[in-house]
Design goal:
This protein is of the alpha/beta class. 33% of the residues lie in helices and 15% in strands.
Length: 513
């Protein structure tokens, strides 16, 4: 990199996660020369798919299921669904309960309501209006909160619902266990204590998309999304350089703009004295959240769920009732390893035959742990799965794990294993990373923050990068008209010839508990 300073490009992007790539796509589409630098040998950040257990078993390293793929304003402009083949299961997620019972959130809202029986009308009343205006929900939740909402009535309804479900009476108005368990399962995605307004807001967003467009799975793994963005960057003259960690801005070529797809603390460290002391003090108070322990399994067959309804979904929340899930998450928030834990499970190979050899399967799991934890939670995860799928242990062919500390070593954006790059609590969603109408623009000439540390926060949506690029175009290049991001006419994603889209899922032989 010693000769880099002699070069010149219009824009440099540090980091190739979904936000770094979306920023590079947008800037390259605007006709600028763009270069992306990635420390790892492969691009993608949270969009990586690798054989980490056994040959032929392809595991998503971070993100697996993508509720935002069809909802994100960036991905819709980019035409992601035309570039990458997706499968949308008939059920977005499920939560098994004691006694072989299960609560299911189907893509079909009416089927879900019917399945919930006496609580069906309450579920329909809670989510129906949000599902009806899902695009407005996506616009509101996918923007900086310090704004005048474009759809004020939808924003008001969403906010009131989040306040109600994020407070001490969050189980109302339901009379049975199933709907509360369904909501708690999605609320717990945030690693926040339950109940919480921010957890409810994030969960309601995911629950809305579950009934609006479903929770899609990219064929071939999450890496396919990153690869589609890299292809577009290169098609428009941009470059992506891998295996190149950046330790100082002096190592980068001369450019008018530097976009950081890094944790805000790392961006501040790299920018150094180019940032005002007041800004450095403000971002110095930015807090990290709790971490995750990740376990991937290569399996001899599908997970033998006691209730076969779970074969209609790729996503399962293991935690039991609303109170049980809250107890597990609140133990982590208090600094303890929860036992039994809440476990988020994805089995994409039920729907995507490219992930594993014929007849075999992959299983993606994580559980929340205190920030910086080095504890191995593999056995706790296996026991939790066995509770609802007796015989699971016997199917394991190979395992790959990462503690919270190892998650940070794998991706430096995940401080202490925090995959949100900063706690997504309410205060840090409003001021992410600082209170500003343009939180992506750093107060140093030509510096911009694109990562999940900036609004709108965590999730594979590409919006942080898109907004950072928009700010850079306006302030550094005087461009006010955003470029067209759509794919070439006629470009339609098709799955590989070997990819089977099942008409139905045949469950394995079920074993008695």
């Amino acid at each position: 990199m010693s000769s880099a300073s002699a070069e010149h490009v219009d824009a440099v992007v540090v980091g190739s996660g979904p936000n770094g790539l979306s920023a590079a796509v947008t800037l390259a589409r605007a006709g600028l020369s763009v270069r992306v630098y990635e420390r790892n040998a492969t691009v993608g950040g949270g969009l990586r798919t690798e054989e980490v257990t056994l040959p032929g078993f392809r595991h998503d390293i971070c993100s697996a299921v993508h509720p935002l793929a069809f909802a994100s304003g960036f991905f819709r402009r980019f035409g992601l669904a035309r570039r990458v083949p997706f499968v949308v299961p008939t059920a977005s997620y499920g939560t098994p309960l004691d006694g072989g019972r299960v609560a299911m959130a189907y893509l079909d809202l009416e089927r879900t309501a019917d399945d919930l029986g006496v609580d069906g009308p309450a579920w329909r009343a809670l989510l129906g209006p949000l599902v009806e205006h899902a695009d407005a929900v996506a616009q509101f939740t996918g923007s900086a909160l310090l704004q005048v909402p474009r759809h004020p009535l939808v924003a008001a309804r969403f906010g009131l619902t989040a306040l109600a479900q994020g407070g001490p009476w969050w189980g109302l108005p339901f009379r049975t266990e199933a709907p509360g368990a369904l909501l708690a399962g999605v609320f717990a995605h945030t690693t926040l204590p339950l109940p919480s307004v921010a957890g409810a807001a994030a969960g309601l967003t995911l629950a809305t998309y579950a009934h609006a467009r479903g929770w899609p799975i990219p064929v071939g793994g999450s890496q396919a999304i990153a690869d589609a963005m890299v292809a577009d960057i290169e098609a428009h003259g941009g470059q992506v350089v891998t295996g190149t960690p950046v330790e100082s801005l002096a190592e980068l070529p001369e450019s008018r703009v530097v976009v950081f797809d890094t944790h805000v603390a790392d961006a501040a460290r790299l920018a150094g004295d180019r940032l005002a002391p007041g800004y450095l003090r403000r971002v110095g108070r930015f807090r990290d959240g709790n971490g995750v322990f990740k376990a991937d399994f290569a399996l001899a067959g599908p997970v033998p769920w006691t209730n076969p309804e779970l074969f209609e979904t790729a996503t399962v929340h293991l935690g039991g009732s609303r109170r049980d899930i809250a107890a597990a998450e609140n133990a982590v928030a208090a600094g303890w390893e929860s036992d039994p834990p809440y476990v988020l499970v994805s089995q994409p190979s039920l729907f995507d035959g490219t992930r594993a050899p014929a007849g075999k399967h992959v299983l993606w799991t994580y559980t929340h742990v205190p920030r910086g934890s080095t504890e191995d939670r593999t056995e706790a995860i296996i026991r939790r799965i066995e509770q609802f799928a007796p015989g699971f242990r016997d199917l394991i062919l190979g395992t790959s794990t990462m503690t919270a500390r190892q998650m940070e070593q794998h991706n430096p954006n995940y401080h202490g294993g925090d995959i949100s790059a900063g706690s997504p609590d309410f205060a840090q969603l409003v001021a992410r990373p600082v209170l500003s109408s343009d939180p992506w623009r750093m107060p140093g000439h030509g510096l911009y923050l694109a990562s999940a540390s900036a609004a709108p926060g965590p999730g594979v949506h590409g919006l942080g990068g898109y907004y950072a690029a928009r700010s850079a175009l306006r302030h550094s290049f005087g461009v006010t008209r955003m470029p067209d991001l759509s794919p070439a006419p006629g470009q339609v994603a098709t799955p590989p010839a070997s990819f089977p889209i099942p008409d139905s899922i045949t469950p394995p032989t079920l074993r008695e508990p």
